Amino acid sequence: MADRYQEQLQKDALFLCSDQHVDTELLDKLVLQLNRIYPQILTDREAQKFRNLSVPAVTRLAELLSYLQEKGEEACHEFYRALHLHNEDLYLSLPTRVSRREAPELSGSNPKVFYRDRCVFNDRGKPVFTHTFTHSYSLSFLVFVQFKQICFYLSF
């Protein structure tokens, strides 16, 4: 990994605090995740501080990010894991993640193309899926009916 998580969080902090990317609900989920799963990173008292609704969410987020950077590498890593768990779209739009996907690998291939292709299961669209699913369902129903008839005849 080229950048450490602390360095990445420092780069991503401005993005996260701007344009209300992290709302109160998401901030609350992140704080609870860090507090409940990793109490060594965020104690109950600290979690209450970062969940205080009388303080604006942007301020609480900035303080949380600063606190996590002071806590160290593991705390920053767990923040990224919690963010990925609770808001994958925001996680993937972080500047450090975008630059990673756009930067060509040493082999010369572009991981962004791989990422896009990895998410496409069927390029023929929904009608082909619907047709295939209907055909599979019909075939399984036919087998079920035949099996039921065989069981009926065997019961006599």
From TrEMBL:
Residues spanning the signal sequence: none
GO biological process, any: regulation of apoptotic process
One Gene Ontology cellular component: mitochondrion
Domain of life assignment: Eukaryota
Annotated InterPro entries: CARD, CARD19, DEATH-like_dom_sf
PANTHER family attached to this UniProt entry: CASPASE RECRUITMENT DOMAIN-CONTAINING PROTEIN 19
Name of the featured protein: CARD domain-containing protein
Native source species: Astyanax mexicanus (Blind cave fish)
